[in-house]
Amino acid sequence: MRTEVALAEPVVPVGRGWTTAVVLANVGVFAAWLGPIQVLLAKQSEAVAPGNKEAVFGLVTGIGAAVSVAANPLFGALSDRTGSRFGRRVPWVLGGAVGGAIGLLVLAGAGRVAWMLLGWCLVQLFCNALLAAITAAVPDRVPKLQRGVVGGWVALAQTLGALVGVGLATAIGGITAGYVACAVFLLLSVVPYLLVSADQRLPVGERPAFSLKAFWISPTQHPDFGWAWLTRFLMNLGNGLGTLYLFFYLQDAVRYHNPDTGVLMLTAVYSLCVVGTAVVSGAWSDRLARRKVFVIGAGMVMAVATLILAVWPTWPGALTGAVILGAGFGVYLSVDFALLTEVLPSARDRAKDLGVVNIANSLPQVIAPAIAAPVVATLGGYPVLYALAAAVTLLGAVLVGKIQSVA
User: Fold this and answer.
1) Cα(76)–Cα(41) distance, rounded to whole angstroms?
2) Integer Cα distance of 124 and 143 in angstroms
3) Quick check: is 54 in a domain?
4) Is the pTM of this model over 0.70?
5) Which residue, 197, 274, 387, 254, is CA-closest to 30?
6) Which residues form the Major facilitator superfamily (MFS) profile domain (predicted)?
7) 244 falls within a domain
C-alpha cells in the first residue's frame, strides 16, 4: 500500500458496513466506561465505604480520568507510528479491548478501594488505546463532506454505549455480574471492525519521529485547533459537572425510590433524544457545509437542561432535563466531531492530534470531581452544582464563534 494512500485526505465515501463496525466498537468502549461510571462504581463505592461514598467515587473516577488524560494521546501517537501488516489502528483496537476487559474483571472482584483504583485505571488505560485508534479511523477513511453524518452515527455510539452499559449494570443483577457483562460486550463489539476495517498499512520508512514535543500543538500556530480544544474542554466540564453525581442526585435530592433504575430510565430517555437529533443534524450540517451554528445552538440547549436540574429537583424535572439535554447533546456530538476533524494540523498525526483533543474529554473528568464534591457537600448542594454546569457549558458554546477556518 503506498504511503500517500495511508496519509492522503480520503475522497471515496465509506459504506454502511464499515460505518456500522466503527459505531459498534465505539458502543463497546462507551458501555465499558459509562456502565461503571453511571451505576456500578457508585454502588461499589457505597458498598465499600458507605459513610464516605462520594469521596471514594470521586477518588476512583478522578484518578482514572488522570490516566485517561495521558493514555489517549500517547496511544494515539503509537498508533500513528505502527507499521503492522494489519494496519495502524487494528492492533490497538484489539489490544485495547482485551486490556479493558481485564480491568473490568479486576473491578468485578474488587472489595477494597485499592482494587477499585487498579481495575478502573486499567479500564481507562486500555479503553483509551482502543478509542484513540477507532476515532482516528474516521478522518483516515471518511471524506470531509461525509463526516457530519458519520459523526452523527458515532455520536449515537456514545449514547447507545451509555444505554447498553447502564442496562447491563442494572438488568444483569449485582455489581460483579454487571462488570463481567460489560467486559464480554466490549470484546464482542470490536470483532466486526477487526474483520472489515481495511486498515491501511504505513511503511516503516514513513513513520513520524516520536518526540514529546509533538504532543504540544501551539495555539498561536494553530489557533482554530486551540479554540476547538478549549470549547470542547468547557462543554465536557459542564457535562461532567451535570452527570457525574446523577445517581446521588436522584438518591439524595430527588429522593427517587430506586436510583439505579432511575438512572437507567433517564439514560433511555436521553438516548432516544440523542438518536432523534444526532444523525439528522450531522447530515444537515454536511448539506449546508456549516458547523459552528449547530455547535453553538447545541451548547445553549444543554445549558438550559442543567438549569432545569438546578431549579426543579423532582422526578418530572429530571425527565424534562434528560429530554432537553439529549436533544442538545446529539447535535453537539455529531457536528463538533466533524468540526474537529477539519482543524487537525496534520494527516500524519491524526490519532495523536485527536488524542490531544480527547484530553479535552478526559481532563474534565479529573477536574469535575474536585469541583463537584465540595459544592455538593458544603457550597450549596445540587442547585449550585447544576447552575455552575450551565454557566460553563454556555461559555464553551459562545467561544465556538472564535473558530475562523470552519463555517
Assistant:
1) 27
2) 30
3) yes
4) yes
5) 274
6) 224-407
7) yes
Look at residues 76, 107, 275 and name the one whose alpha carbon lies nearest to residue 186. 107
Count of the separate structural domains present in the chain? 1
Cell digits of residue 387: 447552575
Q: Could you report the average pLDDT of every consecutive run of 10 residues in the chain (407 residues)?
A: 55 87 95 90 91 87 86 87 85 97 97 95 96 88 83 79 88 89 97 89 68 74 92 89 83 88 86 84 87 93 94 94 90 85 78 82 79 86 92 95 87
Angle at 112 between CA 110 and CA 117, to 5 degrees: 75
Distance CA 253, CA 315 (A): 10
Could you tell me the three cell numbers for 152?
452523527
Total count of residues recorded for the chain: 407
3-state SS, residue 202: coil
**Does residue 334 contact residue 154 with C-beta atoms inside 8 Å?**
yes
In a domain, 118, yes or no: yes
For residue 177, give the C-alpha cell: 455480574
Please indicate, yes or no, if residue 346 is contained in any of the structural domains. Answer: yes
Grid coordinates representing 377 are 457537600
Measure the CA–CA gap between 269 and 139, rounded to whole angstroms: 31
For cell 454502511, what's the residue? 16
Domain enclosing residue 299, as ranges: 11-199+219-402
How many whole angstroms separate alpha carbon 61 and alpha carbon 369?
Answer: 8
Q: Domain with 256 in it: what CATH number?
A: 1.20.1250.20
Rounded CA-CA distance 297/49 in Å is 41
**CA atoms of 262 and 278, how far apart (whole Å):** 24
What residue has cell string 458498598? 47
